[in-house]
Amino acid sequence: MEISVKINGTPQKHEIEPRQLLVDFVRSTAGLTGTHIGCDTTSCGVCTVLLDGVPVKSCTVFAAQVDGHEVATVEGLKSNGELHAIQKAFTAHHGLQCGFCTPAMMLVGAAFIEENDNPSDDEVRWAISGNLCRCTGYVNIVKAIQAAAEERRAQ
Amino acid sequence: MTAAQTLSTPPEIGGIGHSVPRQEDARLIEGQGNFLDDISLPGMLHMAIHRSPVAHARIRGVNTEAAAAVPGVVAVVTGELMAQHNLAWMPTLSGDTQAVLATDKVRYQGQEVACVIASDPYTAADAAALVEVDYDVLDPVTSPQQSLADGAPLIRDEKEGQTDNLVYTWESGDSDATDAAFDSAARVVSLETHYPRSHPAPLETCGIVADINSVTGQATLYMTSQAPHAHRTLFALVAGLPEQNIRIISPDIGGGFGNKVPIYPGYVVATAASLLLGTPVKWIESRTDNLISTGFGRDYHMRGELALSEDGRILALRADVLSDQGAFYSDAQPSKLRAGLFHVVTGSYDFPSAHVTCRGAFTNKAPGGVAYRCSFRITEASYLIERLVQNAAYEIGEDPADFRLRNFIKPEQFPYTTPTGFVYDSGDYHTAMRKAMDEVDYTALRAEQAEARAEGRLIGIGVAHFTEAVGAGPSRTFDIAGLKMFDSAELRVHPTGKAILKLGVKTQGQGHETTFAQIVANELGIPVTDIKVVHGDTDHTPYGLGTYGSRSTPTGGAATAMVSRKLADKSRKIAAHLLEAAEADLDFSAGVFSVRGTPDRSVTIQDVAFAAYTNMPEGVEHGLEGSYYYDPPNLTFPYGSYIVVVEVDAETGVWKVDRMVALDDCGVRINPMIVEGQIQGGLTEGFAKSSMQWITFDEDGNCIGSNFMDYLVPTAWETPRFELLETCVPSPHHPIGAKGVGESATVGSPAAFVNAVIDALAHLGVRNIDMPVLPDRVWAALQSAGGGVG
């Protein structure tokens, strides 16, 4: 079947198998390997993408379901050659170690600060509680998201 | 910079002690990391594994017809086919053999039985499910106690001379002296506890892309490997491939924690399939594959005893361990040490005698025994001694912190030889513990605890002081599968003064591309941002044994410092030539050679680098490059004092961390930001193991915990906040005084968390709850101690 989808702002048409998962579509068909696979059970969240601006775990969405919708991935965070505030904050606050959960964490963080640009520590922790990290103990991820929120506030 | 260190380079150079932002971040924050599953080669096929659904069964037959008939399937590989190529079995890192694909029996649930190679991963998975295996189900052995009991089913009946399920026996220390000390003891404190099976569960699972060119014989194996050089040699030895034609590329790794040290059956089958089919083959584990079949950690059933004198001094320790090894003995650990470094179990304390025994038992469970974010078996040892010491304090009615302070090895006793033969390099345990106690205002905390108890609230204060032993070699003691444990660095400075550093170790998130550049920056004054660090490609890096056991900084970091010093020596010769001065008259600081007394006569390291290719003194070899293989004279011994405060809900058994202060001394910190990040991550893993994270099996040998819905790892919501402190007693034998830190917090913290919960219940007589300290276990302990509510 054919689907039309806007990926990181670019409209595209793709021929897909009806059973193809969105994560495989993003990685293999669209060639955007910044989105990762970690568990197959919607538990770890490393496959998170934004579907019409809302974080979804793309291992539990069929590619067919995004027909006519908009998908954003980590590759689309940067705009006009400028890193997104969340990307700068993850580096500045050492919010990543192995980097495998990082694209998803940043997307969740980026969507979250659009809704809450002055989050408490607990609010950030709740927002990212669907995403696992095995390296950092989360503390610097929380700091990075709060710092990005602060920059968002200042805009 | 850290409080305890002085800086020898300015921030723009970014040497040791600077929290330099990580060089590896740029690609990772833009989705440009190159992880194993991101690799796609022309014509690449995909592999999926058919695994045993039962824990113990004889295989009557394997029918691959239905699988082979699926459109898109290229081949179905069975154990029989592997046997034709003499690859149905492979050696493990501990000198055992392990089935690559089962031929005779399956010995654990999830064992590899057949592999399907297909055009795409969906087809491969579909077809793998259609492989039919006729099993004659046998009684499973699901505990090491059952395994060693009379009449237990023999798991390894294929092993010549194996008549029972015993894997090994091992001992350390002096049994006579220990017995004598126990005979004369005023008191004996004992503890039986199980350090449960746990799985490292890096978020990226294991995988391989095997690409063997049938014309040239070149075998390029992209692997999630923490030890690419060792894997290259093992592939050469096992598969008979010429080593010069094997290139292991370990790309960005999404966490390892010991899980990516062993060689797994999937790697071998994918490589054989690529060789036979003449096309690249990719295999990526599913999460379930990862959790049920690859290297687990721990699973030690431990009994410990402390002999105490009348005045509260430790006289001796006895420890006996029964290790659940699973179906194959595949511990990833030094081959001479059956129980790894478990004999470091005497911990941070000064006493003369110890005796340690360990038996390993085969069971119908997945094989493993990897050093899961710890040096080999040290977390088990640290846990046992710190739990024992806590109980010893209760036994004599003393505060657990005071008991430790009296029994600690004193600063003036270093280097300190332990009763089991370790020589601790340096430390000041008293200062560390007092600093942590001051931070929490320990005395006031105990008073608050007493008040809370009077009100019926259960507050617990857990103390733990660990000593780790990391950084293997020295090579005279440490080898893995015969490969000596040293490590290496190769440094080349280009004419424009930019440098490339190549390492034998391999990062999985530890930040090597930054910290190792900082070591060069510190020694030569070349800015960190001018140094590229290359690792994980055996064609382009010098030999080394890889990254695990916190060994990268102690070995590879030392090699980096030493090769930098080699180049500094040569640079001095060139600088002397350029400045027309004697070498001895030159000062060298932060990348500038200057003539002593006339500092305006100077050249930079960049000038020297250019001259190395354009204007060399007569008789000196051109170029500015070198390599160094560093064999450490000893392990390094990082340590720390941890204090945890918990509150236990007497009605539900739920406990909550109110506070955790973690003081770590890992010697000199190269990049304090990265060190603190490692500690935060390690503490979280320690919390995970003490509170929720374990792999269990039912009585049929079914693995409970085969996905992230059943195997609980903490999210940000459950993870406590940790307060970090430090002291700095450098390692006297390491070139830059660093000790390694990646695993300290995972080693030291479980005892602190558990001690805190026990401390909350200690007045009721509770002395042990096994990990994970689940609410139902706490509740049951409260009920049986008569302290429960409701």
**Average residue-wise pLDDT of chain B:** 96
The share of residues in helices of chain B is 25-40%
Instruction: Output the strand order for the largest sheet of chain B.
Output: 3-7-1-14-11-12-13
What is the assembly state of the chains in this entry? Answer: heterodimer
Low-confidence stretches of chain A: none
**What summary fits the major beta sheet of chain A?**
5 strands, mixed
Described by the principal axes of the CA atoms, the overall outline of chain B is: globular
Strand content of chain A: 5-15%
Distance between the termini of chain B: 53 Å
How does CATH name the architecture of the largest domain in chain A?
Roll
What portion of residues of chain B belong to β-strands? 15-25%
Q: Please summarize the sheet with the most strands of chain B.
A: 7 strands, mixed
- Topology, number of strands of chain A: 5
> What CATH architecture of the largest domain in chain B would you give?
2-Layer Sandwich
**From the helix content, strand content and strand pairing of chain A, which structural class follows?**
alpha+beta
CATH topology of the largest domain in chain B: Aldehyde Oxidoreductase, domain 4
